[in-house]
Amino acid sequence: MTKAIDAYFALLKGIVVLCLVGMVVLVFGNVLMRYIFNSGITVSEEFARWLFVWLTFIGAIIVLRDHGHLGLDFVVNSLPTPLRRICLIVGHLLMILATWLIIEGSWTQASVNLYTYAPATGLSMGLFFGVGLVFGISTMFILVWRLFLIATGQMDRMIVIDEETAAVSQGLEK
């Protein structure tokens, strides 16, 4: 199971890289076309915006898995264990609720806009709003798993990642 999860996140990282490369090529190519040939690529701006939205949502999934989002870990980690566990459970339940709202809203928007097409690319707007479903479902699995770990006592504090710890763990210490 771990190999499948690692493969899924490797796929997500590859998609992020492709989105970033696509954005750079489209925007830079469009700038060159405008200044050199006095014309442009019609779909460039719209498609680059789509790639940016996908990159942002998929990047957020990757960062959530790596414990990279901002948090007030110094407050929560300084609490006694029972209070810390309660705070973590409440926090995760609130994040699960927010994720559910994203899934529900994305499903509604994707369904409503399935047969609405973007003006420049002609792609279904359901694809644009569908990234919320990918984000929501992936995030929901991560959060529910962490809630399970907290409830069973296997995780009792927020995981702290700072530059020094990251550098030491990657063998980049000074």
Automatic annotation (TrEMBL):
Membrane topology: Multi-pass membrane protein
Annotated GO CC locations: plasma membrane
Top-level taxonomy: Bacteria, Pseudomonadati, Pseudomonadota, Alphaproteobacteria, Hyphomicrobiales
Protein name per UniProt: TRAP transporter small permease protein
Tripartite ATP-independent periplasmic transporters DctQ component domain boundaries: 23-148
Job description of the protein: Part of the tripartite ATP-independent periplasmic (TRAP) transport system.
Quaternary context: The complex comprises the extracytoplasmic solute receptor protein and the two transmembrane proteins.
Segments passing through the bilayer: 7-27, 47-64, 85-103, 123-148
Source species of the chain: Microvirga brassicacearum
Main subcellular location of this protein, as a coarse class: membrane
Keyword Transport in annotation: yes
Similarity-based family: Belongs to the TRAP transporter small permease family.
Keywords: Cell inner membrane, Cell membrane, Membrane, Transmembrane, Transmembrane helix, Transport
Superkingdom classification of source: Bacteria
GO molecular function: transmembrane transporter activity
